[in-house]
């Protein structure tokens, strides 16, 4: 009876020790699951792989189709007006290395287009092309200023390289804006920007 009692006590001790081990195992499993979910969400949000992806877009200078006016086909008649560059500037680097030329172009029908030429920047999550009234500053001091004042988004960046056109809505008063930024809307930071000067 003494031996049986001793055996029962050892078994009880083993059972008691197994309980905490199981609880610790379940807790560790939940911690690993939570960490995996957090890491996955962070990767989806930041999308760091885009920094090594390139997308080149080469669009021709926009033109408008207008019916020829009376006498426009006569010999010696003045040629129809073409697109006119009204302002332009050179992109400088901010959070990412960026270069290229920005042009504000007025088309013969009166519509306006923002054109990026020879753009070369990094890809990233949720990049936009903005017209803004902010000054363009060199270095990190200029990274975050473009959403402080007046700005208008012309849409998502079509590609991080090449020549691209962005229609400017008719209601936008270009006199209110003095710069263009390639803006990361997800992290509120400028990849690059250009100050606009009258052409």
Give your account of this protein's structure.
- There is one protein chain.
- With 199 residues, the chain is α+β, with helices and mostly antiparallel strands.
- It has one helix and eleven strands.
- It folds into two domains: 2-46; 54-59 and 82-198, Superoxide dismutase, copper/zinc binding domain (Immunoglobulin-like, Sandwich).
- It has one helix at residues 2-46, and strands spanning 56-58, 84-90, 92-93, 99-106, 112-120, 127-132, 151-156, 161-168, 179-184, 189-195, 197-198.
- A six-stranded mixed β-sheet has the order 1-8-5-4-2-11, with no helix packed on it. A five-stranded antiparallel β-sheet has the order 3-10-9-6-7, with no helix packed on it.
- The longest helix is centred in the first third of the chain and has 45 residues, at 2-46.
């Amino acid at each position: 009876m003494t031996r049986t009692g001793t055996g029962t006590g050892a078994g009880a001790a083993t059972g008691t020790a197994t309980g905490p081990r199981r609880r610790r195992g379940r807790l560790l499993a939940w911690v690993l699951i939570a960490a995996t979910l957090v890491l996955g969400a962070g990767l989806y949000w930041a999308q760091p792989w885009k920094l090594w992806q390139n997308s080149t877009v080469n669009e021709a200078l926009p033109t408008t189709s207008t019916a020829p006016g009376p006498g426009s086909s006569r010999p010696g008649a003045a040629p129809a007006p073409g697109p006119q560059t009204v302002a332009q500037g050179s992109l400088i680097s901010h959070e990412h290395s960026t270069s290229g030329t920005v042009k504000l172009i007025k088309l013969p029908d009166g519509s306006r287009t923002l054109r990026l030429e020879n753009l070369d920047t990094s890809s990233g999550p949720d990049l936009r092309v903005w017209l803004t009234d902010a000054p363009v500053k060199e270095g990190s001091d200029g990274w975050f200023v473009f959403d402080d004042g007046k700005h208008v988004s012309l849409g998502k960046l079509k590609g991080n390289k090449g020549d691209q056109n962005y229609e400017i809505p008719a209601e936008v008063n270009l006199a209110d804006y003095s710069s263009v930024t390639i803006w990361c809307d997800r992290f509120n930071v400028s990849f690059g920007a250009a100050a606009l000067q009258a052409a």
